[in-house]
Amino acid sequence: MNAPQRRVLVIKLGALGDFVQAMGPFAAIRAHHRDAHITLLTTRPYAELARRSPWFDAVWMDERPRVWRPDAILALRRRLREGKFERIYDLQTSDRSSWYFRLLGPEPRPEWSGIARGCSHPHANPRRDFLHTLERQAEQLRMAGIEAVPAPDLGWCAGEANEGISSPYVLLVPGGAPHRPDKRWPAAAYAELARQLHSGGITPVWVGTGRDRVAGGDGVDLFDRTSLFDIISLARRAAGAVGNDTGPMHLIAASGCASIVLYAHASDPALCGQRGAKVTIVRRPSLESLSADEVLGLVLAGVP
Description:
The longest helix is centred in the first third of the chain and has 13 residues, at about 70-80. The protein has a 6-stranded parallel beta sheet. The chain is built from 11 helices and 12 strands. By secondary structure, it is α/β, with parallel strands linked by helices. Helix 7 crosses helix 11 (about 290-300) and helix 8 (about 230-235) packs across helix 9. Strand 10 (about 240-245), helix 9 and strand 11 form a beta-alpha-beta unit. The protein has 2 domains: about 5-140, Rossmann fold (3-Layer(aba) Sandwich), CATH 3.40.50; about 170-300, Glycogen Phosphorylase B (Rossmann fold, 3-Layer(aba) Sandwich), CATH 3.40.50.
């Protein structure tokens, strides 16, 4: 009789940039547990991306039950227990995901890689929060017995068709967290960059949500019209991309697009920045001091 298939759970809830930076660890876990049944626990925005990936046999959605919904909490506890997981990799390493470790008690819990108190494979580096996300996750997996962790790679993703945009074009990503305006390059600077690109024969293509729309911006307006798969496909054909420290720029950079990412001192690329041979990080104390001419020069240096 064949031994039962080993069952593994990976927890990664979001946000988009964090999810993209977990793709290397996803691949490493899949390679290490080649014959296991691997489930991902994530949130709704990333479920379809995970389902299409080559790393998971099942994708569960975490509805993040609130403390005043004991019925939902008990349902999650029951589902986690019934999964009969032998090992759980908590790549979220938040208070919430660590709470799930406690939720699995009091009987013997699965092997657990993360920061939950009492887990079997703790990421026992007191300075873990001072590491870049990629190094932090790789170290966490090394402490759980996984040595080789590749860089995030979207080569497996076919993307979506996006005909009708003439090349060369440059993606512009002016958005960011609404509560963090200090992380955004001013809209007027994006509009000026778009004007200069357009006058030079390069089509600006705007990506983001409707609230990110830049008044008077030349080019193709794709606000609220792109899925994650559309963004991947657009990035592969683009001559380059310019954007703030925001999730889509992680997706674009991982697609292999020449990416210029703009950082104010409100966030630190040494901890969370996009990585790659075609990534250029531009950081200023305030992005208001960064001119469109300077960014245009960087864009044109990378345009074939």
